[in-house]
Amino acid sequence: MTRHDDRVDISRRAFIVNGALVVAFATMAPARLLAQKVDTLGTVILAPNLPGSLKSNPFLDAWIKIDDSGITVCTGKVELGTGVRTAMLQIAAEQLSVRPALITLVTADTARTPDEGYTAGSHSMADGGTALFNAAAQVRFLLLTAASSRLGVPVSRLTAKDGEIRADDGRKVTYAEAVKDIQLHRQADATSPAVDPKTFTLIGTSLPRVDIPGKVTGGAAYVQDMRLPGMLHARVVRPPLPGARLKQLDVTAVEKLPGVVRVVVDGDFIGVLADDEWRAIVAARALTRAAGWTAAPALPGYAGIHAALRTLPAKVYPTASRSTAPVSTKPAFTCTHTKQYVQHGSIGPSCAVAQLADGTMTVWTHTQGVYPLRGGLAEMLGVPLDKVHCIHVEGSGCYGHNGADDVAADAALLARAVPGQPVRVQWMRDQEQLWEPYGPAMATDLKATLDDAGNLRDWNFALWSTPHNERIVNAGRLAPATLLAKPFVSAPPVPIPNPEGDADRNAVPPYRIPNLDVTMNFVPEMPFRTSAMRSLGAHINVVSIETTVDELARSVGQDPVDFRIRHLDDPRAVEVIRTAAREFGWPYRGTDDRKAAGFAFSRYKNIMGYFAIAVEVAYDPDTNAVRLLRAVAAIDCGQIVNPDGARNQIEGGILQSTSWTLYEAVDFDEIQVHSNDWSGYPIMRFSQVPDEVSVHIVDRPGLPFLGAAEIAQGPTAAAVTIALSRVMGSPLRDLPLMRHAPFGRT
Amino acid sequence: MIELRVNGVLHQVEAGPETPLLYVLRNDLRMNGAKFGCGMGQCGACTVIVQGKPVFSCVTPLSSIGAREVVTIEGLGTLAHPSPLQASFIAHQAAQCGYCISGMIMRAQALLAANPHPDEATIREHMEPNLCRCGTHMRILAAIRVVAAGEHA
Ligand code: FES
Ligand code: FES
């Protein structure tokens, strides 16, 4: 077996050699604002004046097709378990004036739907929802205009409903007839016919999720459930750690195992195809035993990771700076926060099905971005873009960039070896937990002062992080492609431009502060591949900001909620804070010294949904047990499309963030990652679940959709940290709060 | 050939005796409900009921089932006629991605069959082995609670 010796994956990452940190530097792309004409989700802006994703897909017929077979609505966004399919249906049905059941909704498919880049960053409603909202309104208006000429009556005398346009004299034209008189292949207009949100019958209602009945009755719902005729089952065998190289592998015995169709070895990429899933697993286990690997480069270890972060070469990005008042002469408050690597930890490990037929590689995938994945796969396979077809099929919830894209690459590589036959690749649990890109470890330093009146005066915040955005911009971002005998090189990491931000997402406090300095130290090379996980850097940044604000308020005897309100100018921010405080019963008057409360607020990315939360936690000093008892949240996400769907998202976000904050850390030492199953990476269980979680919605009919999927993560973590610090009597600054090395290992 | 009784139907299965029940259900019998999550008895995504008891089908060899009856979520109810527990999960919209949900329903079903009116503490303790990453726990508990209280009966 031969391969190029300059092992790229390694040369990009930093390792400990003889006790010293070393890094081989790839040239950094110079500025984070390089990507002027490309949005943060990777799509090209063609029409900057249009609303939402119409900017990148300006033609109406990219979104809505009407013919004799009915109405088809296409969205480039995908269902990740957030209810987006139902919400998109509500929006399109509302604006087309039809029952949802009359619409066939097609989600991300490179042959059929608009390229909306990734379904990520709480953008689905703001971008995709807004695009559909406008496209559907414009199509409906065009249909009405066409019907008006057909029937010879003004639009004002027409009513559109459920696929028919009726005149007040009783004559009617169907949508399918009217559409023959108009051209839907036309650019959308910048503004759509106005609608009064009071007339909405679907937007703003809790339409039950269309996917849930099938999912609770054993329907085929996930890519894991696909069974194509003649489909083979495959498993991959990965190196024990990134950087280990294959020394020896004799596959002859494995090739003779029952059911084995093919063993594929290409460099360090190993896979086995079999006629049956269990036989594929048995064969993969035999391959694992047969393979000999070189030692992987040493890791910095759990305890040394934050020191390593601060030592490694970093690119410094000033994020915000202002100086509008004399510096305070009061003593400064300083603190340092840390966060460990975290895992997305999907319950269902990543899976994909691929088939090479008639020269086209079709891949069924639970990726967040079918178009970027298609680009990566085409480069990896050395074929033109139009020879790769990616179709989204749901997977287990992903919460960001998990193994979805990598397993799609596995499936494509293995399907290439058996032209014609569909191949299903399912990662095993340890592969998911060892090979998904982790959420980065981070560190922050904060220094703040008040003025004589007890108002915030100076704020200095610095943070250190590896990339939160190693999405698929080339083949080298796909892990299997880096293992091939001719390996691909991952593109150099570039942080997401502001205002969206990457590691520095929500690093700028939302409060009125005269002197402000916020800096991101972006560390491109680290032992673990890291990428997007729900809310990116906002998790620790909001913890840092909100715990500081809480301590500063208390240091001058002020209520932390009142203190926040005094420093905010945005009435929507104030309203969610007041709502959460009122519904919780703030100020907290608990008398049990084993219980305490915490409050936190942020506006996601400082430009999207508003979120305030109050929590009550209990701590038992005898057993060291902690539990979140009660969480009361308020949100403002603009016009709410589906209130129950938003509540479901927020409840989940609160529980997941609490789990991250209390328990979650990747356990690793110098030579090994121990978090390769649920015992090595515990997450919240039923005994740790709160008694009560309530979510109060401040609806804003007529205002833009802002998205809800990630807004709970930062403030929930902050409120839990504050409450726990209070009940324990000293500030807690290292995440996770309740689980630390040596993790019970001996 | 091994005989296997699932949801009241007797099947002749070709799989080897050591094959975990999960793969027999999913591949030989082409059922979707039981899910692969960990393959190690750590998450409950694969939970089915064997002779009234919730088991992790991923670590249960086919040969160990014998004549005992296996019930999967396909055996509770259908899209048109969901069981009370399935109907309660739908009514509470107790799913986000939904990947864990079949396992949750089967574990809860085993409890309710043995103890139709469990209290809150019993429900939580019984559900402890099953993981949900989406944080749907509050709705899962609410859906079970309503059936446990007999409000759906
Ligand atoms: S898949 Fe069986 S317990 Fe996780
Ligand atoms: S609903 Fe997604 S894992 Fe439970």
From TrEMBL, chain A:
Gene3D superfamilies: Aldehyde oxidase/xanthine dehydrogenase, a/b hammerhead, Aldehyde oxidase/xanthine dehydrogenase, molybdopterin binding domain. InterPro entries: Ald_Oxase/Xan_DH_a/b, AldOxase/xan_DH_MoCoBD1, AldOxase/xan_DH_MoCoBD2, AldOxase/xan_DH_Mopterin-bd_sf, N-heterocyclic_Hydroxylase, OxRdtase_Mopterin-bd_su_IorB, TAT_signal. SUPFAM superfamilies: Molybdenum cofactor-binding domain. One of its GO terms (molecular function) is oxidoreductase activity. Residues 217-297 form the Aldehyde oxidase/xanthine dehydrogenase a/b hammerhead domain. This is CO/xanthine dehydrogenase Mo-binding subunit. It holds the Pfam family MoCoBD_1.
Automatic annotation (TrEMBL), chain B:
Keywords: 2Fe-2S, Iron, Iron-sulfur, Metal-binding, Oxidoreductase. The lineage of its organism: Bacteria, Pseudomonadati, Pseudomonadota, Gammaproteobacteria, Lysobacterales. It holds the Pfam family Fer2_2. This is Aerobic-type carbon monoxide dehydrogenase small subunit (CoxS/CutS family). InterPro entries: 2Fe-2S-bd, 2Fe-2S-bd_dom_sf, 2Fe-2S_ferredoxin-like_sf, 2Fe-2S_ferredoxin-type, 2Fe2S_fd_BS, Beta-grasp_dom_sf, Diverse_Oxidoreductases. It comes from Luteibacter rhizovicinus. Residues 1-76 form the 2Fe-2S ferredoxin-type domain. The keyword Oxidoreductase applies. The keyword Nucleotide-binding does not apply. GO terms for molecular function: 2 iron, 2 sulfur cluster binding; metal ion binding; oxidoreductase activity.
